[in-house]
Design goal:
CATH class of the largest domain: Alpha Beta
Order of helices and strands: EHEEEEEHEHEHHHEHEEHEHEHEHEEHHH
Strand order of the largest sheet: 3-4-2-1-7-8-9-10
Number of domains: 2
Strand content: 15-25%
CATH architecture of the largest domain: 3-Layer(aba) Sandwich
Radius of gyration: 22 Å
Helix content: 40-55%
Number of helices: 14
Structural class: alpha/beta
Distance between the termini: 19 Å
CATH superfamily of the largest domain: Glycogen Phosphorylase B
Shape: elongated
Number of strands: 16
Largest sheet: 8 strands, mixed
Length: about 400
């Protein structure tokens, strides 16, 4: 007789926004629907309050209020979200979860952790964003005011203190998930909790080289970036790369910068030849990837890098930094390059200046992406749930 699947109440930090947590959360809900798993997703949204029972999959979407604070162009934090506790409590009690899963210390995640405690059911927590590194990057305006010999040390202190605080929050969970092995080891050391790998998958039919529709007379190389245009993504390097390539004598290229964020104005001012189509989704995004010749992704803080995997699936090699999760996706010299900031322009020139090498990278990129499967990712997550639930008293 097959054991019943665990009843999971999932509280994601974001769902409709453009970021890795939202992207993963939407695929997670789709997985539950395809498998007909008992799954409740409690999330924030801009629309009116909405509750839906669709077979075994329940969704409860609650609006953020006028007191919410902007964290990004499309992401907010509502300190008054507690007003929804009676309704959330009613729905959760009716759903009867065996386990609660949160994705971070947002207002939604905090409520999920509290309900797990009240209901005395295990808590799972997945780490999707290096919030401690974001805290340090977003303090750079302050760090620049300090003497140089104090600035770096103060930045490290901010990062370390933030990590201690976030580790304290995550240690409330019985099992953790992280998108790369290095982060898993770090979380196990800082929280004392087991951490399981939760990488990302890609829709290799949506993101496909056949979406390329460049005109035959377009001889420029298109260098692409996809993501939030913010300081923690190190987007300033894009302007530097453009300047360095031009200094090296490379002029037949242009940037395609997909996304939005606080640094868009700065980039537009310094990169007048670049295209800024804003946020793209679905086929429009897939076509943008396929029309690129190379993805330039300078972030040092990403825990995985969904956009890198989407580019590879589109047959587009990527140049990434030696920090964070993207370097674990890119095989240096095979599906792209791993380079320090000061070496990005040379790495790009080396790939595009060798058409045979570039063509081989495009094929290898697509082949690697075909091994990344969302169903396998979430099957691993459920295997972790079952391990933790097996240890619980009846």
């Amino acid at each position: 007789m097959t054991a019943p699947q665990p009843r999971v109440a999932y509280f994601p930090d974001s769902f409709h926004e453009v970021n890795g947590v939202a992207h993963t959360s939407r695929h997670f809900e789709d997985f539950a629907r395809r498998r007909n798993l008992p799954f409740l997703c409690v999330r924030a949204g801009d629309r009116a309050q909405a509750f839906q029972e669709d077979g075994n999959v329940w969704t409860l979407e609650l609006p953020r209020g006028v007191l919410s604070i902007a964290l990004e162009k499309d992401l907010r934090f509502d300190p008054a979200f507690l007003r929804h506790v009676p309704l959330i409590g009613e729905v959760v009690q009716r759903f009867r979860p065996d386990l609660v899963h949160i994705t971070g210390p947002s207002e939604v995640g905090l409520l999920g952790a509290w309900l797990s405690h009240c209901l005395q059911v295990p808590l799972a927590a997945s780490w999707h964003t290096n919030l401690h590194e974001y805290a340090a990057r977003r303090s750079e305006w302050f760090l620049r005011l300090l003497p140089k010999n104090h600035s770096a040390a103060t930045g490290r202190t901010i990062e370390d203190i933030s990590m201690v605080a976030f580790a304290g929050f995550y240690s409330a969970a019985q099992v953790l998930y992280a998108p790369n092995p290095e982060l898993c080891r770090q979380l196990e050391e800082s929280t004392g909790r087991p951490c399981l790998l939760m990488p990302r998958g890609v829709d290799a039919e949506l993101f496909h080289p056949r979406k390329r529709n460049r005109k035959a007379d377009d001889r420029d190389h298109i260098l692409g970036f996809v993501g939030r245009l913010s300081i923690e993504k190190n987007v300033y390097l894009l302007a530097r790369v453009q300047q360095e390539l031009e200094t090296l004598g490379h002029m037949s290229f242009r940037f395609l910068i997909v996304g939005h964020g606080g640094e868009e104005g700065w980039l537009r001012e310094r990169m007048p030849r670049a295209e800024f189509p804003g946020v793209l989704r679905g086929d429009a995004l897939a076509t943008a990837y396929a029309n690129m010749d190379l993805l330039v992704f300078p972030s040092h803080t990403d825990t995985f890098g969904n956009v890198v995997l989407e580019a590879l699936a589109s047959g587009v090699p990527a140049v990434v930094t030696p920090d964070g999760g993207p370097r674990m996706i890119v095989r240096d010299g095979e599906t792209g390059r791993i380079a320090k900031d000061e070496d990005f322009a040379a790495a790009i020139a080396g790939i595009l200046g060798n058409p045979q090498k570039h063509a081989a990278m495009r094929e290898a990129a697509r082949a690697y992406a075909l091994t990344a499967n969302w169903d396998a990712v979430f099957e691993g997550v459920y295997a972790g749930y079952k391990t933790i639930l097996a240890r619980q008293p009846s």
